[in-house]
Amino acid sequence: EADIYQTPRYLVIGTGKKITLECSQTMGHDKMYWYQQDPGMELHLIHYSYGVNSTEKGDLSSESTVSRIRTEHFPLTLESARPSHTSQYLCASSDGAAKGTQYFGPGTRLLVL
Amino acid sequence: GNSVTQMEGPVTLSEEAFLTINCTYTATGYPSLFWYVQYPGEGLQLLLKATKADDKGSNKGFEATYRKETTSFHLEKGSVQVSDSAVYFCALSGRGGYNKLIFGAGTRLAVHP
Hints:
heterodimer; A: mainly beta; four-stranded antiparallel β-sheet; 11 strands; globular; B: mainly beta; six-stranded mixed β-sheet
């Protein structure tokens, strides 16, 4: 059973606000990922990290930023939220030894008004 | 580049019907292959995986066989239940240390009593 947590689960916020979506895992995994899932269900990798102080942009350009100061924590920040950021955001982690298996958190559903 | 193609949904079945969701892939080398399931309002859960050709992954009555000759990883279940209603994602992971997953677009399954 994977132990990866995301907060908040749901967030409704106004345009222009700064928000941080939290993601934590207790498995000691080095690799962590953020995905954006659009209403059509498709998943897009927006950020990933191989370890502490390592972050990379994913396949889909995103205005969000991430940080990885601790192994277990991988927060995603939007400096100024816009309606186009409305989506579901999924966090995942992997230990690299599991032949690519990623474990997902429950997701944060964001609505920007 | 690597890609995954899975059959479009929605797939609508009656309880106890046989399920097949097709998945084909394009990849260099020998990727690992996965099926993930997403229940309403939740994140993705690993359903099954296969790491080399001819491997069969199985879990909760679902099966999929890694077919390198046809570059396929079709998901099957002999008798679906209403509780199987969800979105199913096929994915592949390339070799190397990054463990990035390439997802298909997802197939929504609805099972009716």
